[in-house]
């Protein structure tokens, strides 16, 4: 048994197909199939059920594949320790981030990361929260930028910042005429929300619950940009995170952004990684870069003024 054989087994468990698993391992299908058979002979158990259409792992095969994945992850940790001993600020970090934050945060923070760690290769993966968490647990990601709370005792959580929400309404909406907006002003409103699977949907539903508001039926958006355009088209109103409406993001026409008075509803953003990660000390340094965003980026005040200035100078 060697690491290569374990890698073949893990690949087969992920792809459930000898051809695709072999392609992912950059070997021929007969080579992979032969090594899996040798591994079965060495262990004295069947790891795989071979059917005409697909590959199924046996119960013991799934358990051994899980252990093999853990072994391979530990090997990567060992390599990472060695690399960072030679050069603590080099190497690769695989970072996951969810879609309603990534496009709006990364343009501001990636240049700061490059300036602070010029030799670091930052590999960014944009996925929904549950996918990021799954890949973190499997060792396919080194860290994730996620919204709190995260209920997983195996993960370390490093708080980064709190991002307020704003209310987006059409220019002609009755709420647009108000000089102040309180949460309970939404009590008789129905909001446009994202589809299931987006953490922003859960956060918006929590705000709706606190305000006594509801969800507009018959429509669920796939992205923040869809929500923005639907508001501009007079379909309804919605909540938008502050970073998603800050320049250089262009404001849609016929869209009025309203800041909540008092303590605004918000989401709390954190960097998370496995407690067992050998990269923990470096990831804390990386988190400091994310935490050092300019204060005005997270300040919803005068957003309409900022967009008006951009329109006048355009």
UniProtKB/TrEMBL annotation:
Gene3D superfamilies attached to this UniProt entry: Periplasmic binding protein-like II, Winged helix-like DNA-binding domain superfamily/Winged helix DNA-binding domain
SUPFAM superfamilies: Periplasmic binding protein-like II (SSF53850), Winged helix' DNA-binding domain (SSF46785)
UniProt cross-references to PROSITE patterns, sorted A to Z: HTH_LYSR
Transmembrane segments: none
UniProt xrefs under CDD domains: PBP2_OxyR (cd08411)
Keyword Transcription regulation attached: yes
Domain HTH lysR-type: 1-58
Matches recorded under InterPro entries: LysR_HTH_N, LysR_subst-bd, WH-like_DNA-bd_sf, WH_DNA-bd_sf
Keywords: Activator, DNA-binding, Transcription, Transcription regulation
UniProt-listed Pfam families: HTH_1, LysR_substrate
Family the UniProt entry places it in: Belongs to the LysR transcriptional regulatory family.
The protein, known as: LysR family transcriptional regulator
Organism the protein comes from: Dyella flagellata
């Amino acid at each position: 048994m060697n690491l290569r054989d374990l890698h073949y087994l893990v690949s087969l468990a992920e792809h459930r197909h000898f051809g695709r698993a072999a392609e992912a391992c950059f070997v021929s299908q007969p080579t992979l199939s032969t090594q899996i058979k040798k591994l079965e002979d060495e262990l004295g158990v069947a790891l795989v059920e071979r059917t005409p259409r697909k590959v199924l792992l046996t119960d013991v095969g799934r358990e051994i594949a899980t252990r093999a994945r853990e072994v391979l992850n530990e090997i990567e940790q060992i390599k990472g320790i060695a690399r960072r001993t030679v050069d603590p600020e080099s190497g690769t970090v695989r970072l996951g981030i969810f879609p309603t934050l990534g496009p709006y945060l990364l343009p501001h923070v990636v240049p700061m990361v490059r300036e602070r760690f010029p030799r670091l290769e930052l590999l960014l993966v944009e996925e929904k929260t549950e996918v990021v968490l799954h890949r973190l647990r499997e060792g396919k990601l080194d860290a994730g930028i996620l919204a709190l709370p995260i209920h997983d005792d195996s993960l370390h959580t490093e708080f980064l910042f709190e991002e307020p929400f704003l209310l987006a309404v059409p220019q002609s909406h009755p709420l647009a005429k108000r000089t102040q907006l309180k949460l309970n002003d939404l009590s008789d409103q129905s909001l446009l929300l994202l589809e299931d699977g987006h953490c922003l949907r859960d956060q918006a539903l929590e705000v709706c619950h606190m305000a006594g508001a509801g969800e507009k039926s018959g429509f669920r958006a796939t992205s923040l940009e869809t929500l923005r355009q639907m508001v501009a088209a007079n379909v309804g109103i919605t909540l938008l995170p502050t970073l998603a409406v800050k320049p250089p993001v262009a404001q849609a026409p016929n869209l009025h952004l309203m800041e909540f008075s008092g303590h605004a509803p918000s989401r709390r953003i954190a960097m998370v990684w496995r407690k067992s990660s050998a990269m923990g000390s470096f990831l804390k340094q990386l988190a400091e870069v994310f935490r050092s965003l300019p204060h005005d980026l997270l300040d919803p005040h005068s957003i309409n003024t900022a967009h008006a200035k951009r329109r006048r100078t355009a």
